[in-house]
Amino acid sequence: MFKNNSKFYITTPIYYANAEPHIGSAYTTVAADCLARFNRLIGKEVFFLTGTDEHGIKIEAKAKEFNKKPQEFVDEIAAKFQFAWDELNISYNNFIRTTNPKHIKTVQAALVKMRSKGDIYKGEYKGLYCRGCEQFKNEKDLVDGLCPDHKVAPEFTSEESYIFRASRYAKIILEKIKKDELKIRPQERRNEIISFYEKEGLIDVSFSRKKVKWGIALPWDESHTTYVWADAFLNYLTGLGWQGPEDKMPYFWPPTLQLMSKDILRVHATIWPAMLLSLDLPLPKELFIHGFFLVDGQKMSKSLGNVILPFDLIKRYGVDASRYLLMGAAVFGRDGDVSWKKLDEKYNAYLANGLGNLVARSTALTQKMLKQNLNLNKDAELKESFLEAWTFYINSLENLKIDVAISIINQQISILDNYIAKHKPWELVKIADEKVGKIMYNVLESLRHLSFMVWPFMPETTNKILHILGLDCQKECSLNFNKLKEWGRLNENTKINKEGPLFPRIEEK
Ligand code: MSP
Q1: Phi and psi dihedrals of 358, rounded to 5?
Q2: Which of 21, 329, 337, 449 has the fewest Cβ atoms surrounding its Cβ within 10 A?
Q3: Helix axis angle, 70-87 relative to 310-317, nearest 10°?
Q4: Maximum CA extent, the chain
Q5: Which of 228, 264, 296 to mutate to test the pocket of ligand 1 (most atoms within 8 A of CB)?
Q6: pTM, entire model
């Protein structure tokens, strides 16, 4: 029931609804979208889940700061996330909000089940709590007494609480991580978690708060609300409609890939799998931890005034280029540093002068050729180069090497530029040499291949290139993947359509 190699269930973290999305959350979401689209392209059935995390003390306090009721406040922020993701052309299958009544039901049913297994007991929690992380901390986690992520001293909390017996599952989780049944990548992150288990083990976790009102009430004791992380993790079940009328769990569970950054790896590798084991559900196949983004070498923050919003990117570069620039900004899995200067340079080098210029030149040359009554003539000079590129490209994306896939696209663009430079079709056109038909066929057929390679990153660009090549996008995109990447599908009597420049050059800042 739970075996699904041809299915791909991918999740992003659900982002806190305390501020609008920035390029950090956009990075994870665009990456998830590219991987979702790639897997759709190669014929897998994909379910892509994202959403917002809307309960807890941090959000309650933020709403108060704006003089708003928490629900009113999170409604506004969730709408901003949805709007930003729609603008960025994110093809999610579900956008989950933790204040949705369906999710509240999931949380309550899951906690009741965990309690019935003897995994939730009444106790007392005494310790340090960081509101920024919404996590309990021990002294060892702090640097000079401060939370290293939020640079504030955690507050001391002591209260009656219902506790989750996570410790019960420590051994089995560690075993699964070591056997790669729960894969954690990159390797250094896996090592870090294994060493955490070996040195510190897994202790029971406080799962309810008496003092926090903005949360989901425990069904058996309404004076407590659910700990926000317990609530948040269960979104991955609600997102598939767990136990509801259209439950997709039997079909898609477990997640093939859960993306996040290092800030939330530890909770995902401890509390989350323990909850699943308590619920008798299989663990995710993989947690992939991408790097953290800095802007001009510094953490993004309102006070530094260096926060980059998705709309800032879209305004300057357009949707597709923004997606491409984000994905090319770092080695996937390593930290990255962005700056307007670097983004501008990359945009001009790879998109305006690269792909954009290649498409414009090829279109103009073919039109000149057709005017001279010279026809395209099927040829396969560049076939091998593209066959090989496809193999590397597929392999890179199957192994989550997003930046490598982008470099393969760039490499194919240079191969085409060099091919055109070598054969000088503009001279052949002038003297009406029929050889130009073969050369331009190679170029245009290569562009057809490139248009599909860029699809996960720049879907609108795919449509534009296919339109230029006189192909019906809907029809082409519904083709079986192996057909679509066969060499020679482009017709010799193709009519070339005009499009405006794909990526107009910009003045660098
Ligand atoms: N609500 C929790 C997650 C619950 S999932 C069950 C949370 N939210 S968050 O808004 O803080 O999102 C954290 C995630 O946002 C990171 O793990 C990462 O995916 C993304 N990023 C936020 N800022 C980022 C950067 N500056 N750089 C890269 N990714 C960033 O934690």
Answers
A1: -60, -45
A2: 337
A3: 30
A4: 89
A5: 264
A6: 0.95
- The verdict on the CB of residue 310 being under 6 Å from ligand 1 is no
Distance CA(161)–CA(124), nearest Å, equals: 5
The reported pLDDT for the residue numbered 142 is 84
Separation CA 413–CA 408 (nearest Å) = 9
Whether ligand 1 lies within 6 angstroms of the CB of 35 is answered as: no
Residue 3 confidence (pLDDT): 40
Task: For residues 346 and 361, give the distance between their C-alpha atoms in angstroms, rounded to a whole number.
Answer: 20
Q: Is the CB of 260 under 6 A from ligand 1?
A: yes
* Gap between the Cα atoms of 207 and 182, Å rounded: 24
Q: Whose alpha carbon is nearest atom 17 of ligand 1?
A: 261
Give 347 Cα–ligand 1 centroid separation in angstroms.
Answer: 26
Does ligand 1 lie within 6 Å of residue 28's CB atom?
yes
Strands 217-218 and 221-226: antiparallel
Between CA 340 and CA 312 the distance in angstroms is 10
Q: How far is the CA of 25 from the centre of ligand 1 (A)?
A: 6
pLDDT at 4: 44
Q: Locate 233 and state its tokens.
A: 């993790």
Nearest CA to ligand 1 atom 9: 15
Token readout for 500 is: 């405006």
With 0-12 / 13-18 / 19 or more C-beta atoms within 10 angstroms meaning exposed / middle / buried, residue 131 is: middle
Length of the chain equals 509
Q: For the chain, list the domains and their CATH numbers.
A: 7-290 (3.40.50.620), 339-484 (1.10.730.10)
DSSP designation for 298: B
Q: Report the nearest-CA residue for atom 29 of ligand 1.
A: 24
DSSP conformational letter for 146: B
Sheet holding 183-185, edge to edge: 94-97, 45-53, 7-16, 257-261, 286-290, 183-185
Q: Which residue intervals of 17-134 are DSSP H helices?
A: 23-41, 57-65, 70-87, 101-116
In this prediction, residue 297 carries a pLDDT of: 85
Residue 163 bridge partners (DSSP): 121, 206
Pick the closest to residue 340 from 305, 312, 304 (CA basis): 312
CA distance 404 to 414: 15
Q: What does the pLDDT read at residue 1? A: 36
- Tokens linked to 464: 């534009």
233: left (phi over 0), alpha (psi -120 to 50) or beta: alpha
> Mean pLDDT per 10-residue run, the chain (509 residues)?
71 96 96 97 96 96 96 98 98 98 97 98 88 81 83 85 97 98 98 96 94 95 96 98 93 98 96 98 98 87 83 97 96 94 96 97 95 93 97 97 97 98 95 94 98 97 96 84 94 90 90
| Chain position carrying tokens 């029971």 | 204
Of the candidates 156, 139, 135, 141, which has an alpha carbon nearest to the alpha carbon of residue 233? 135
Distance 26 CA to ligand 1 centre (A): 10
